[in-house]
Backbone:
């Protein structure tokens, strides 16, 4: 069965530190990849997505993610985090031609001011 | 992207009762999706609601427990029936705009 793994469940960083959140999926075919963010008290928002083309995807608020097909990974990065990045981050995968998303268990990021 | 209004935002319910969650989208969409997010866990798809046909349920979810209505292309309801404390979760509706899901704000349900 397809699955998505986010290995870091809780991450605590100081402001200006660099961030990398891991996401690995298990599926051998064509995939669409997503990162969602949920700020405290708010609903899930799309941070960035990859469908095809350049494997380095840039999203909102300075986030980027790199799709590495050989590693089945789609890690999220930000060179310098801010206190306002405190949120929960979810990686999601859908297989090409389907509408179903499979979500990872999420990573809670806390940025200390 | 679509804007989704979901209500109620939260509720505390007695076991054995039912709660209906409403989801309104500001544009017409073919499919609407209902997810559950249990405490400390990821989002799990409950069912897909298609206008004019029966909802399609995922493994582990049944219509008797989670009846869904989809009367038109902008509205859907999910009912959580005969609730038990295990149903305490966040329930979310979402739509696929073609470039990723848009989610409602969620309904935080606590069953006591």
Residues:
């Amino acid at each position: 069965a397809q699955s998505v793994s986010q290995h870091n469940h809780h991450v605590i960083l100081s402001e200006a530190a660099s961030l990398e959140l891991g996401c690995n999926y298990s599926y051998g075919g064509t995939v669409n990849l997503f990162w969602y963010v949920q700020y405290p008290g708010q609903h899930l928002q799309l941070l960035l997505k990859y469908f095809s083309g350049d494997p380095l995807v840039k999203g909102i608020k300075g986030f980027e993610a790199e799709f590495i097909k050989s590693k089945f990974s789609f890690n999220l990065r930000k060179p310098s985090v801010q206190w306002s990045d405190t949120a929960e981050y979810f990686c999601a995968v859908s297989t090409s031609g389907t509408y179903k998303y499979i979500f990872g268990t999420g990573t809670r990021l806390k940025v200390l001011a | 992207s679509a804007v989704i209004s979901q209500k109620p935002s939260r509720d505390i319910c007695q076991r054995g009762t039912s709660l209906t969650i409403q989801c309104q989208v500001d544009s017409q969409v073919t499919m609407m999706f209902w997810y559950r997010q249990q405490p400390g866990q990821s989002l799990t798809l409950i069912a897909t609601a298609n206008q004019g046909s029966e909802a399609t349920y995922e493994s582990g979810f049944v219509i008797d427990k989670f009846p869904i209505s989809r009367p038109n292309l902008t509205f859907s309801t999910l009912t959580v029936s005969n609730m038990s404390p295990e149903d305490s979760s966040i329930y979310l509706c979402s739509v696929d705009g073609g470039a990723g899901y848009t989610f409602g704000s969620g309904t935080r349900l606590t069953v006591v």
Summary: Chain B is about 0% helix and 55% strand.
